[in-house]
């Protein structure tokens, strides 16, 4: 049978009409869905934005100004919003709204800002999501059991004493920047506890390449989050920023992978020892295992099939979260105690009641008795939380308070602003450790204070951090009286990935008393 052109045209026209109608329907569906999302977001309070680019121009700021700008959005209420191009960002600074986000078992995915950490940290515990996050969290939780953390107190003490010895040379009442001293101390601690290796950062008082690399990555990541045009991988590469970032990241990766390969080789050699040697080891002093050793052990037992790259992700994450955050917390604690001699005096009284004139190391029992010092640290973390922002990605429509938050929206908790809510913290700018006495904090909303985040994705290392901070601060304050050179108003706060003083922490130190160790050469 022969078909003519006239006979085939109706069929062709019908197909064209069908596909045109389907395309129009899909476009209409997409447009209506997009408009509903825009309408829902725009019902939230916040600054007006420009067409297409939204608020992107006003967010293109340097770190100090950007930090102040972000926290200013809390002026619009507990929930506010901006647009970075076509990407809505919702800011939360109220306890009830924070609870709705952090306590949810469905809102576990970190927001788009964490994507920019992937080249450095990979898909480790901080940045991963879904099944990988669940399995890694389950795998790593035993590594932070209190019994394992007790073994690290020996390292905390050794490095703290080394720092105190260094600080004695500065205990002449002249101002100096204490931040590098604390940085080198915590770096030695984290390398020893995370990787089982000593880099002796405290013995090298010059610039540390690894520390500088971490700071550089933090700055570049924060700038990329804030500048919408840098979100595109292509534009980031064309601008040359990607090459600069990768060269800095290579410094951290090379160090981590080199250490992992060395420890894996040592681990394999230990496991291949004869039964007699193992028995001799078991009868001898117990060997302290670093975080890296535990990961290698878990992998060997079949609890996880971890490659060197998998282990690097977790070790680098622990190095980042366990070093920079602790350094900031200790420095802010010393800064605030140096501004409040009456509070510092109470800390000295507590330390003297626990240790007397002894220079003995701090024990886990001592840590339980240093309750007032712990409250001082908590209050310092309230005023200057080490992590000033937490982010989540909303993948399904949710309701927070009176507002509907549509799917595919980035949510950021403004921790710095949250901790200053006068509903829960009267005179929030006042440094008052008694806020954390049981009788004063009993009725406080549990999500009004979240220095280590909260809910299912809370910080797995918060006990480690608090123990380390208490040990270091107890050694410093047993030996010295601290005065801060600058006032709160004079200190420039730098809010990047970590909240720290932009120009360091300038203190004056005075010896408290003559101690036996001071007579040692």
Q: Determine the structural class based on helices, strands and strand pairing.
A: alpha+beta
What is the topology, as strand order, of the major beta sheet?
1-2-7-4
CATH architectural group: Orthogonal Bundle
Mean of residue pLDDT?
Answer: 86
Helix proportion range: 40-55%
Task: Examine the coordinates and then state which fold CATH places here, giving the name of the CATH topology.
Answer: Cytochrome p450
What does the overall shape look like? Answer: globular
CATH superfamily: Cytochrome P450
Q: How many structural domains are formed by the residues?
A: 1
Oligomeric organization of the protein chains: single chain
Query: Which residues sit in consecutive blocks of at least 5 with pLDDT less than 50?
Result: 276-282, 514-521
Radius of gyration: 27 Å
Q: What does this protein structure show overall?
A:
The chain has 521 residues and is α+β, with helices and mostly antiparallel strands. Helix content is 54%, strand content 9%. It contains 20 helices and eleven strands. The longest helix has 38 residues, at 5-42.
Question: Nutshell version of this structure?
Answer:
This protein has 521 residues and is an alpha+beta fold. The chain contains 20 helices and eleven strands.
